[in-house]
Amino acid sequence: MESNKRCFENRYADYSGSLLAGQGNEAVVPVVVATVERILKKVPLDAAECDGGLYDGPAGVAYALYYVSECPLFAARRDAYLKRAKHIIDVSVKCVDAEQDKNLRVAFLLGGAGIYAVAAMVYKAMGLSDFVKPLTKFRNLWEVCAPIHFLECGSDELFVGRAGYLCAALVLKQRLGIEILSTEQIKAICQAIIESGKQYARKKRKPFPLMYSYYGTEYLGAAHGLSSILQMALSYQDVLSPGERELVWQSVDFLMNQEQNCNWPAELGTMIERENELVHWCHGAPGVAYLFAKAYLINKRPQYLDTCIRCAELVWQKGLLKKGPGICHGVAGSAYVFLLLYRLTGNSKYIYRAQRFAEFLFTEEFKAGSSSVNRIYSLFEGLSGTVCFLVDLLQPDKSEFPLFSVFT
């Protein structure tokens, strides 16, 4: 294989019936603890540096600390981690409360909605009745994103748009066990997503019913594109009318047919150049897989699972990414696809593959050959996402890509 600009060559032998020795609790727990220590040395704690939201701001570290503290294997450190998480998220909440632009407040991964959601989770985990305050702030944002064109750049995607707000509500429901938004509120947001997609598809004369753009680009992947918007529509399909539901499923099948060699182009209508191929959660198969996983969980049609399996095969070949350890376009984000497939199939081959990717993160080859990351502490680009992945490797039956619920 020619040397690839974007990924390291995967030289590992594939699964032959046994998992890796030396990747059990006694090996991985100390690595998680050491990585958390490294993160806490780097994370900025003053209000001047609280931008970046959950994506690459300090708030994402608070989520990772919360996530580790929820795992029973870290019970001894639970209180200490939650205390640090609260300290970090409190600074972020203050910044969001002071934010004048209400559109920025509604953003899930880059703004307020995600920060309020994580604050509620952290407070609740600590047993503080205060958790209701950020929840109320979160709930009040629904009116901001209900108008059909509330953002000029594109109102529907995951980072700043409606799909993200719905995703945050889903995570809160999963973690707190309560429905945050009323059925009416959810319905209003879902209807805006469908109507917005219909209008755009009609205006641009698309041969399929729903399409969206973000800053003028018709993305397909999880970060800003069609796949995560449809994934959220499926997650809330109970509130859709039969007609709306039909449009969503037609669009899911349309997207399935855009596959090129087990992958999806970053934007609609482009051909994938093999030497420049994006195999990332943000753009490409590792993120699109979650939509088809959701589709499969709902209606059990085998072609959706087959699509997920092809995504995982591509990730095994090309997922040892040079762009760092993170979950957005790094090795941990690739490895999460294997944990997803393990949950869908129960096949231990996928745990083995995730173990191999975890092992690779700590090799000299990776350290020497991967790009340096600006915010090494961050959740999506840095080590906080890696920590979530390592914790999930210890509990594969519960594993899930951070803040991206498929099983709720």
Describe this structure as you would to a colleague:
The chain is built from 18 helices and no strands. The protein is mainly α. Helix 9 crosses helix 11. It is globular and about 55 Å long. 53% of the residues are buried.
Summarize the structure.
The protein starts with 24 loop residues before the first helix and ends in a 14-residue tail after the last helix.
Furnish the topology, listing elements before pairings.
Layout: H1 25-42, H2 53-56, H3 58-69, H4 78-97, H5 102-105, H6 112-125, H7 132-140, H8 142-145, H9 162-176, H10 183-203, H11 226-235, H12 242-256, H13 285-299, H14 302-318, H15 331-345, H16 349-360, H17 364-369, H18 383-394
Helix pairs in contact: 1-18, 3-4, 3-6, 3-18, 4-6, 6-7, 6-9, 9-11, 11-12, 11-13, 13-14, 13-15, 14-15, 15-16, 15-18
Keywords: Membrane, Metal-binding, Transmembrane, Transmembrane helix, Zinc
Organism: Scleropages formosus
Binding site for Zn(2+): 282, 328-329
